[in-house]
Amino acid sequence: MLDIRDLQRIQAIATHGNFTRAARVLGVTQPALTRSISAVEAMLRGPLFLRSRQGAEPTDMCRMILADAPSILERMEALQRNLSELRSGPGQEIAVASGPYPFETILLPAAIAFGREQPRIRLRMEIQPWPRAVAQLRAGLVEIALANTTSVVDLAGLSIEPLPAHPMLAAVRAGHPLLRLKRPELSQILAYPLVTTANLSANFSRMLTEARAEARARRPHPAFPAMMLEPMSAWLSVVRRSDAVAFVTAPALEEPGAQVEVLRFQSPVLRTSPAIMRLASRAGSRHAGQFIEALRAANAQARERAWSMFPWLDQR
Question: Domain HTH lysR-type, which positions (predicted)?
Fold first, then answer.
């Protein structure tokens, strides 16, 4: 009966075209590889490769084995990885890079829920600009990135799962002049200092720029945006102490000390639409898969809270 090492050797020879290169990749000698394949051929009562000076050509029997070999090897690697995780103790880590909006909207709630279920797994989470989060993913520094796809130029080689969008809410301090308006327009809002991230999506940035032009007649704050910083909770700290405005997600408003008011304003463009990104070529660990499930659940819960907190929001 074929074992896993037999499949790995057969696949390596077929991939590299000859025994010498395959032996080098497998870390064995060429004579040892030849003997092992000859033993398999004797067991199967037929040749796996047609040898020649040009290399090794798979036979029909070999091609039949190769048709199933990748999926079998992938399942075995996953099984070994899961068994290793099960046997290992504390110290395992899942690294995640995220933009500012998903960091506080879904990443932190997901991390808290995951930590209750998997206390042995350490989570390392960083707030990064959208492109830098993806760059860290490509470099292998993190296993998961939460980023806005419209802000990332090169998506090749990535496995991308878009998440349902969250409405952005205009937060101001208690007693702010804008609260006197029943339904303020964006140009009226942008007459006041704007606090935001340095990495706005293209659509969001375009809309703000156009509305800013309309706000000129109202003598808006000269700097636009007035302040750019991370994280989102810091924006609310600025908003509480000034006439500044910040567009935030509903979960940020539930944090202790938020103490801000929300304007009755909504735009279909003012939404944050992050995606879960991973390297398509990298098989994820079982725990990473569980953490992604926690991210999906946190995203759904955050959206439900937004509609319950602000029933006037359009849910389309």
Answer: 2-59
pTM: 0.66
Amino acid, res. 156: A
Provide CATH code, domain 93-165+273-309: 3.40.190.10
Provide the residue ranges of all domains of the chain, joining segments of one domain with +.
Answer: 4-87, 93-165+273-309, 167-268
Per CATH, the number for 4-87 is: 1.10.10.10
- Please compute the mean of the pLDDT values over residues 109-127 and round it to a whole number: 90
Identify the helix (H) or strand (E) that includes residue 206: helix 202-214
Q: Is 140 left (phi over 0), alpha (psi -120 to 50) or beta?
A: left
Write the pLDDT tens digit of every residue in 3-57: 778 888 888 898 888 898 888 877 788 898 999 899 888 888 889 999 888 889 9
Token duo for residue 298: 């946190």
Please state which architecture CATH assigns to domain 167-268. 3-Layer(aba) Sandwich (3.40)
